[in-house]
Structures are given as structure tokens and as C-alpha cells.
Recover the amino acids of this structure.
């Protein structure tokens, strides 16, 4: 019944000309904002992908990577509204019949040497031990403030596996699984773009090189639904089942009430990239536990009451609201880990352009492997990878 809304023509040819139907569905989907794409066009894209995979299998003997590509595109682009279980079971079957793997990658392990420490008078509070849920709830009730918790994810298999490029490639059909990546240090950069590529290409072109030509970031992607093997390496922190008190700031509460959605379970996202990837200063309408698995990240946080000093962006020409993102590029204001003398001049320029940010109070820290950072709903946060980094965020 849902597919009938697409009209009879594409349904009549989907079995014989699936690529033409795929192209039609793709065109129709891109006439709407992503969140408003009618489900019948997503369904058509999904079903045409399945027919396309069958056609490839029937027509060519050496088609392994092509089949993976078509099915992953169906999951990533359509979201799998009806055939997800079929597509996932097909992909899972491919793991047992995949061709002989290539030689182990070079380097075998991600280079994640600890960065130099830095002195700050604005340190994010660190718990002295791993908090249990009751202790975390007490923290929320007392202050609803950020806190770094050590050791909470030490038992995750990911802690010993995810720095190994070979393991990551094995888990993605020797790197054939397709993943969406962002090109550019952050989504506020000029020239920022997105593309979908094989995981092996992401590792070879962006993750492993010490000086890649571009910065590639696998950011805010539900990798764990797409790749069940990696989902088995982590657990949802019990902290996500605590109950934060209501937001006290009325303006923040009103703004967030229009942006947030109820989740049946905490929303998990992967953040994997090389040194230099940045998440611009922004806020989210959810509570967040950010778990650092591999590498080190610099983090800076501002409370919601600092918003007047942070110059929120206005809507883009496309009409997309950017008011949850600051105009200030904190790359020039954070500590100088590299010893770049020109940064002082760039920082002065930033303060001249945004003079009120001098008045903003903040907290900062370097987040290392095994540490979990609680970011309260509505808090502004900036993150930057100081080494290759693999993090998992849990929104609730």
C-alpha cells in the first residue's frame, strides 16, 4: 500500500530495470528535507536496491563489493523502513562467504600517543573513581554539571579491539562496507562536503596517513546498527538510565522542547577520524555520555547561561537553522598544543571579531581512552581530536 503512492510505472519495471527505479527514487528523495522524505519514496529506494543486488548476483560472478555497496546504500540512504532485516541478514551471510582477505594494513594499529598535558584553571570535574548509577544520580541531583568518569567502559571489548586496523577491516567485510564521511575539519568549514565510501578507503585515505590531503571524519553515524559486530563490542552505560532533573533555565527549556525527541533507547553514534577532526562549538537538545575508546580529544564546555557571549549562528540561505552552533572557531582559542606562534595573532583576531566571548566562562579537559564525559542537555561543547580517535556518544 505504501509503495502504491509511487505510481504504477516504477513498480512495473522494478524487477527488470531496478537501476532506473533507484535513480527515480533518489531524485524524488532529494526534493525534500531529509527528515520530511515521504516513506513511499524511501520504500521504493529500498526495494529497488534489493532488486539491483539480485540482478548483480545473477549477471556477474565477481560482484561481492558491488552487492555490499548497493545494500549499504539502501540502509544509509533509505533508513531501511521495511526491508532492514532482509538486507541485514543478506549482508551477514556475505561475511561467511567473503573472498580471501587482503594483507594486514600498514600501520596495523592507530598511532595514539598521549599529547602533552596542559595547565588550566578551568578543569572539568573528574570523578576520583568509577561512579555507580546511584552516585551518578546523586551528582545529577546536586549540580546537573559535566563530569568525567574514569573506568566505566574498561570492560568493553572495544577497548582492546578498536585501535587495531585489521580488526576494524575484518568487521566491515575487509573494508567493503560503505560508510558516510564528512570531508573537512568541521561542518562549518568552507568546502565541507559529505560522501559515502568503502570503509577500507576511509582507513587508507584519511585515518592512517599522518598528513592526509583532506580531513575525513566518520561523524555522528549509527555505525552500530549498520555493523552488528561493532555493536557487540560496546554496552549502553547505565548512566543513560539515570533521571536528570528538569532544565532550570526557562529559555533553554523552551528552545529544547521544540528540538528534542523521545527515544525508546539511548541513541548511539560513532565518531571515528584522524588527528585534527573538530566538532564546532554547539549545543544538543539531549543529555549525552561521550565515551572515549581510542585516542585523545580536547573538550571545552560552556553552560547554557553563557549563550549571550557565544554568538549563535543565524539560519543559512537554505533555511536550515544553525542557532545551535556558535560563530566562534574555538580552534584559535583553545590551548596551543602544537607550539604555533601564529595562533596568538589568530586568537586576537577572533576576540576582535567576537569581543563578548572574552566574558564567557568555560571548562576544559583532555579526554583519554576509557574515560566517559557527561555533557548535560543544552551545554555548549567543542571537541577536537589530538590523535586518531574513536568515540561513542549516547544521547538520551
Amino acid at each position: 500500500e505504501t509503495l502504491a503512492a509511487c505510481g504504477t510505472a516504477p513498480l512495473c519495471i522494478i524487477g527488470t530495470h531496478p537501476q532506473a527505479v533507484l535513480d527515480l527514487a533518489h531524485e524524488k528523495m532529494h526534493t525534500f528535507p531529509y527528515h520530511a522524505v515521504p516513506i513511499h519514496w524511501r520504500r521504493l529506494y529500498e526495494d529497488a536496491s534489493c532488486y539491483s543486488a539480485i540482478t548483480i548476483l545473477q549477471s556477474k560472478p565477481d560482484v561481492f563489493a558491488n552487492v555490499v555497496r548497493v545494500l549499504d546504500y539502501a540502509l544509509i540512504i533509505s533508513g531501511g523502513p521495511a526491508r532492514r532485516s532482509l538486507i541485514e541478514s543478506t549482508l551477514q551471510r556475505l561475511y561467511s562467504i567473503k573472498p580471501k582477505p587482503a594483507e594486514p594494513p600498514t600501520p596495523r594499529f592507530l598511532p595514539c600517543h598521549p599529547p602533552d598535558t596542559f595547565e588550566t584553571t578551568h578543569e572539568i570535574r573528574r570523578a576520583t573513581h568509577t561512579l555507580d548509577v546511584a552516585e551518578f544520580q546523586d551528582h545529577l541531583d546536586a549540580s546537573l554539571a559535566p563530569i568525567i568518569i574514569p573506568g566505566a567502559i574498561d570492560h568493553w571489548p572495544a577497548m582492546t579491539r578498536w585501535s587495531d586496523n585489521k580488526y576494524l577491516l575484518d568487521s566491515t567485510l575487509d573494508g567493503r562496507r560503505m560508510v558516510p564521511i564528512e570531508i573537512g575539519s568541521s561542518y562549518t568549514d568552507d568546502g565541507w562536503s559529505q560522501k559515502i565510501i568503502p570503509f577500507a578507503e576511509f582507513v587508507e585515505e584519511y585515518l592512517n596517513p599522518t598528513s592526509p590531503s583532506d580531513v575525513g571524519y566518520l561523524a555522528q553515524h549509527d555505525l552500530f546498527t549498520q555493523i552488528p559486530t561493532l555493536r557487540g563490542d560496546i554496552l549502553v552505560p547505565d548512566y543513560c538510565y539515570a533521571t536528570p532533573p528538569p532544565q532550570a533555565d526557562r529559555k533553554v527549556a523552551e528552545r529544547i522542547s521544540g528540538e528534542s525527541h523521545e527515544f525508546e533507547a539511548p541513541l548511539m553514534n560513532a565518531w571515528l577520524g584522524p588527528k585534527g577532526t573538530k566538532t564546532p562549538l554547539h549545543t544538543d537538545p539531549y543529555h549525552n555520555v561521550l565515551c572515549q575508546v581510542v585516542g585523545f580529544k580536547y573538550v571545552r564546555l560552556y553552560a547554557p547561561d553563557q549563550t549571550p557571549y557565544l554568538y549563535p549562528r543565524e539560519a543559512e540561505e537554505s533555511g536550515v537553522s544553525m542557532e545551535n552552533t556558535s560563530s566562534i572557531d574555538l580552534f584559535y582559542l583553545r590551548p596551543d598544543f602544537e607550539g604555533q606562534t601564529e595562533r596568538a595573532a589568530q586568537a586576537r583576531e577572533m576576540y576582535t571579531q567576537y569581543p563578548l566571548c572574552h566574558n564567557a566562562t568555560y571548562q576544559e579537559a583532555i579526554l583519554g581512552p576509557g574515560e566517559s564525559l557527561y555533557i548535560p542537555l543544552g551545554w555548549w561543547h567543542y571537541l577536537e581530536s589530538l590523535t586518531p580517535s574513536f568515540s561513542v556518544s549516547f544521547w538520551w
In short: The mean pLDDT is 91.
